[in-house]
């Protein structure tokens, strides 16, 4: 491992499939990074169990306890700065961040989204792909910018939409690609940050 590994925080809101995958990747040999903090904004998120069971340093910052986005983001900022974080990975983090927060972390905050951006920003991407009759779908890991689901693309992985696909089958096959795409994108970011 490099002498100064990149200190990573992961943001998540739900099941935590990408969280688990990133943790496994960061713990793998030859990845010059340490997971310093996982932050979750929802007390019912399944990923919290994984953090507790695996001694992952984590904080629940419940957004409902804050009067507005700026206050919530300030609480996150305090936690991230206390942990001396270099790079943030949003992994199924379903909360919009303020432009000020994203600008502060410009080029040091990345996100995964279940569509071939710039197509299908926002929610319900699998349903919208089916409704549009698209033949392809996929996932994107990108650097975050203040506008939702925008920013320079790091990795994109594509799948074919099959005639009998449902939202669930599409979600499962896109997730298979997410599990390849996010570690690839993280490695790209580590190479950039460690120059
Ligand atoms: C993933 O499919 C991720 O791409 C998506 O939420 C899911 C989280 O699942 N993110 C977004 O939609 C962000 N705009 P997970 O908690 O099991 O990793």
Automatic annotation (TrEMBL):
One MF term in the entry's GO annotations: phosphoribosylglycinamide formyltransferase activity
The protein's site described by Raises pKa of active site His is found at: 149
* Xref: SUPFAM superfamilies: Formyltransferase
Give the range the annotation lists for the signal sequence: none
Q: In which pathway does it act?
A: Purine metabolism; IMP biosynthesis via de novo pathway; N(2)-formyl-N(1)-(5-phospho-D-ribosyl)glycinamide from N(1)-(5-phospho-D-ribosyl)glycinamide (10-formyl THF route): step 1/1
Give the domain of life. Answer: Bacteria
Q: Which residues form the active site?
A: 113
What reaction(s) does this enzyme catalyze?
Answer: N(1)-(5-phospho-beta-D-ribosyl)glycinamide + (6R)-10-formyltetrahydrofolate = N(2)-formyl-N(1)-(5-phospho-beta-D-ribosyl)glycinamide + (6S)-5,6,7,8-tetrahydrofolate + H(+)
HAMAP family associated with the record: PurN
Which positions does UniProt annotate for (6R)-10-formyltetrahydrofolate binding? Answer: 69, 94-97, 111
The species is PS1 clade bacterium
Entry's Pfam families? Formyl_trans_N
**In the UniProt record, what gene is named as encoding this protein?**
purN
Write down what this protein is called.
Phosphoribosylglycinamide formyltransferase
Q: What does this protein do?
A: Catalyzes the transfer of a formyl group from 10-formyltetrahydrofolate to 5-phospho-ribosyl-glycinamide (GAR), producing 5-phospho-ribosyl-N-formylglycinamide (FGAR) and tetrahydrofolate.
Q: Which family does it belong to?
A: Belongs to the GART family.
- NCBIfam families (alphabetical): PurN
Gene Ontology annotations of biological process type: 'de novo' IMP biosynthetic process
Please give the Gene3D superfamilies that the UniProt record associates with this protein.
Formyl transferase, N-terminal domain
What keyword terms does UniProt attach to this protein?
Purine biosynthesis, Transferase
The Enzyme Commission number assigned here is 2.1.2.2
